[in-house]
Amino acid sequence: MTTSTRRRSARAGRPLILVLPAVMALAFLVLPMIGLLARAPWRTLPERLTSAEVGQALRLSLVCASSATVLCLIFGIPLAWLLARGEVRGLGFVRALVTVPLVLPPVVGGVALLLVLGRRGLIGRHLDEWFGVSLPFTTAGVIVAEAFVAMPFLVISVEGALRASDPRYEEAAATLGASRWLTFRRITLPAIMPGVVAGAVLCWARALGEFGATITFAGSFPGTTTTMPLAVYLALETDPEDAIVLSIVLLAVSVAVLAALRDRWTRGPL
Fold first, then answer.
1. What span, in angstroms and rounded, lies between the C-alpha atoms of 26 and 138?
2. Are 127 and 133 in contact (CB under 8 A)?
3. How do residues 171-200 score in pLDDT, each as one tens digit?
4. Alpha-carbon distance 143 to 124, whole Å?
5. Dist CA 187 CA 168 (whole Å)
6. DSSP letter (8 states) at residue 188
7. How far apart are CA 210 and CA 67, in angstroms?
8. In terms of Cα–Cα distance, which of 114, 192, 101, 188 is closest to 151?
9. DSSP code at position 186
10. pLDDT tens-digit map of 227-255
């Protein structure tokens, strides 16, 4: 039996009772995006995209999301390596802690950050007293909040790439006298680079769309902490068309992320 024949047989055997709920689910996911595009002010879109408020929120979002991604790369790759290659007890528990921000309500994450890094927080009060550094309600606070919610995406992706890589190359480098740092730099990192890139893209997209932790920990001050998601929320009360324009920008970013990762995440079996 040929492949095409098997496919036709499989399609013929699919129960029709599943088709209707499948179509309804697809409509449920797609129609809101179609509605957003249908209500977009296309004629004034270029003007609105270049307005001071929208441009300010867009620039701040890009800077903060990119900075948060850099932080996640610096600290997330070593953490992923520890989870994948570490030989210490309790790694399963550590892995669970790393994934907590994925399921934790972002507002709760913002409250937790305030209790730790706020001026009266466990660490924040010492930062304020000793170094005069205060993170809440600043641009740096936005970056910290975005990194907190986005880092698990990078860690999970890089850990998966590390577990899938062949350790024999690292073992061969070790037998030739290469140090662990040299082996990681020259052997391990190039081998897992696709996973690092995929994780960084997902991390950046998550940071760009972060709302709850940001507004709780950093507040909303135009030009300082008002990122695009916060600007969407505020614009709904004053100028809904600006909110639609910003939403379209975030939608375009999401589509671009999916397009960039289509071979890794969205491509189904042939």
1. 40
2. yes
3. 788 788 878 888 888 888 888 898 899 899
4. 16
5. 10
6. I
7. 14
8. 101
9. I
10. 999 989 888 888 888 888 888 888 888 88
